[in-house]
Amino acid sequence: MGFKAHFRKAQALATLGKVEEALREFLYCVSLDGKNKRARSEAQRLLLSFFSPSVPGESQEHFPDILKLLAPHPRLKEHVESMATEGTSHNLPKLPQESRELPHCSSQEEAAAAGDRSSPENPVKVEGEGQEGNGKGQAGDQEEKGDAASAKAGKCQEKKRKRCQFGPQDPEVPTKARKPDPPADQGARAAVSAPLPSFDASDLECSLCMRLFYEPVTTPCGHTFCLKCLERCLDHNAKCPLCKDGLSQCLASRKYSKNVIMEELIAKFLPEEFKERRRLYEEEMEELSNLNKNVPIFVCTMAYPTVPCPLHIFEPCYRLMIRRCIETGTRQFGMCLGDPVKGRFAEYGCILEIRNVQFFADGRSVVDSVGKRRFRVLHQGQRDGYNTADIEYIEDQKVQGEDQAELMGLHNCVYEQASSWFHSLKTSLKNRILNHFGPMPEKDADPQVSPNGPAWCWWTLAVLPLESRAQLPFLAMRSLKDRLNGIRRVLAFISRNQN
């Protein structure tokens, strides 16, 4: 990292109250650019908090910690040791030659400080001293001027000490309103708890969505984005959106480095903006979790209740759709056949529930899903590239009395017919069906228990050699009797062809 990166990191650490780590970063900035006044002033302020004379013996207590902290940096360690050694007479660290200009005085104060050389403690030889007549008068005038300059120099030194106590960042703090100095450790906490002067909400905006960071993550290449924004970019290209560095390892593991410092900064200094950002996110998640309006629709193949439906996901829009289904907690989406004549997809479909997802390094995934409920499409729509629909769920109509007895006889007859057909298949074909769909479900004691009808009916329809267009009417039927009669006719037709 360069000077700017270390300086930003030091400011963030100081704001969070991590004084020792912030001091190390500021001193590293000084070693990189010794003429930078901001870095030197920040380093001086934190050093003063360690070597403050308000608590006796505290400099000796903190000095070994600082040396231990800077052990990996010999150059900085020698720098701090020399500063502390030179300043032991006043219990304060003296600054190097370049930084003596940091505690600024006015031009008049600097001029007065020059008169300090003529004070009684530092006498100088006055021109004309020891001469007779007018020479003595000139020497007397010069001594009076020296006394006045000495008084002014004392005032300037007093102002310098007061300014150093407040630090170079606070030159406008009034002296009269200043309270008694707190202990050094409390003073350090108060100093770093104040917000940075240059802190602004626009500095904490994601470069992808141009909104305040939410769940910020940092890539291995050092760039920070919202988690959801980065994932959407990786759906299209497995590279960093800014520097184009490869991020395939993030796609394979689905693990990202959470930026804790960024989250703490936002929560501490932008509480209202963070609250609003979180509210918008929760509203979006609530809208996505609605399984009646704007339900995500996967336009691909036929799906039936209780029947497994494995899917290979590789298109960016469906990657986003599957991820959102998992994030909202519903883990459900609709499956429909494509229908370019009547609309983008068919009028009837089945809700699938995600049981497991396996991700690959190139962004692809294999989704293990199973059918849950049937639905009818009321209105078609789109969202972020994938299809959506407003739907209503459909169920079988129950019958009573004689119709129920007739239904039971038909149910038992068709089940035996379907079982015989399956066992008559070749062994290789049966094994392929078993590996993909599992074994044939058992016959139900009451075929009307489930609102979707017996599970073996849907399993039989899934394994029958029918085109998708021929299977779709069975999904739309609300009469179990009609569905059983249809399956019986298909089985009879297939058996005749086999014979």
UniProtKB/TrEMBL annotation:
<feature type="compositionally biased region" description="Basic and acidic residues">
    <location>
        <begin position="173"/>
        <end position="182"/>
    </location>
</feature>
<keyword id="KW-0862">Zinc</keyword>
<feature type="domain" description="Lon N-terminal">
    <location>
        <begin position="285"/>
        <end position="495"/>
    </location>
</feature>
<dbReference type="InterPro" id="IPR015947">
    <property type="entry name" value="PUA-like_sf"/>
</dbReference>
<protein>
    <recommendedName>
        <fullName>LON peptidase N-terminal domain and ring finger 3</fullName>
    </recommendedName>
</protein>
<keyword id="KW-0479">Metal-binding</keyword>
<dbReference type="InterPro" id="IPR017907">
    <property type="entry name" value="Znf_RING_CS"/>
</dbReference>
<dbReference type="Pfam" id="PF13923">
    <property type="entry name" value="zf-C3HC4_2"/>
</dbReference>
<dbReference type="InterPro" id="IPR011990">
    <property type="entry name" value="TPR-like_helical_dom_sf"/>
</dbReference>
<dbReference type="Pfam" id="PF02190">
    <property type="entry name" value="LON_substr_bdg"/>
</dbReference>
<keyword id="KW-0863">Zinc-finger</keyword>
<feature type="domain" description="RING-type">
    <location>
        <begin position="206"/>
        <end position="244"/>
    </location>
</feature>
<dbReference type="InterPro" id="IPR001841">
    <property type="entry name" value="Znf_RING"/>
</dbReference>
<feature type="region of interest" description="Disordered">
    <location>
        <begin position="82"/>
        <end position="192"/>
    </location>
</feature>
<dbReference type="InterPro" id="IPR003111">
    <property type="entry name" value="Lon_prtase_N"/>
</dbReference>
<dbReference type="InterPro" id="IPR013083">
    <property type="entry name" value="Znf_RING/FYVE/PHD"/>
</dbReference>
<dbReference type="InterPro" id="IPR046336">
    <property type="entry name" value="Lon_prtase_N_sf"/>
</dbReference>
